[in-house]
Amino acid sequence: MVVKANPDYSESAFNLTNSAELSEMLNQRRYMEVRIVGARTMAGLPAMEQDLAALDNKIKQLIDTLGSFQDVETGRYAVKQRRQSIIYSPAKIREYLPAKYAEAVIDEHVNEKVLTSLIKGGQISDEIVPQLSADTRETYAYIIQTGGLK
To answer: What confidence score (pLDDT) does residue 57 get?
Structure first.
């Protein structure tokens, strides 16, 4: 079994102080998580959730075979719903709309995921990366983990 190392947030954590008070609260949270997992197991919830998922799969198969079902009065539904999304072509927008409208609706953007992959893969040198960014945006996310339980 491969054990995944815990992440180190030293570089990105804001105001990293490792206070004893927060450490104690994380211990309390871990204790609560263990109790919740125990209660779920004792109540048989994991098995019930698996049974429900299996039943949902059977219902989906029946919908495909027999068609959809709805009872609006009781609020019971087994429906395979059709959803359509219109995908507009930038080339066709440019072809059929006046230039001022085409410019207004077509967004040009950088695919950050691909760019990051290229940087990490070494295809783009670290020296050029600062020249590529126009702005830096700072946001915050809270990461609360006690480790181990899922």
So the answer is: 92
Tokens of 17: 């102080």
Please state, in angstroms and rounded to a whole number, the distance separating the CA atoms of residues 69 and 71: 7
Give the other-Cβ count within 10 Å of 132's Cβ: 10
Q: What is the pTM of this model?
A: 0.52
Is residue 121 helix, strand or coil? coil
pLDDT of residue 122 exceeding 60, the answer is yes
Residue 99: band (very low, low, confident or very high) from pLDDT cuts 50, 70, 90: very high
Residue 84 clears pLDDT 90, i.e. is over it: no
- Residue from 58, 75, 51, 78 nearest 67 by CA: 78
| Distances 75 to 60, 69, 70, 78 between C-alpha atoms, Å | 18, 11, 8, 10
Rounded CA separation 75/97 (Å)? 45
> 23-56: buried (b, 16+ CB within 10 Å) or exposed (e) per residue?
eeeeeeeeeebeeeeeeeeeeeeeeeeeeeeeee
DSSP codes of every residue in 24-79 = HHHHHHHHHHHHHHHHHHHTTHHHHHHHHHHHHHHHHHHHHHH--EEETTTTEEE-
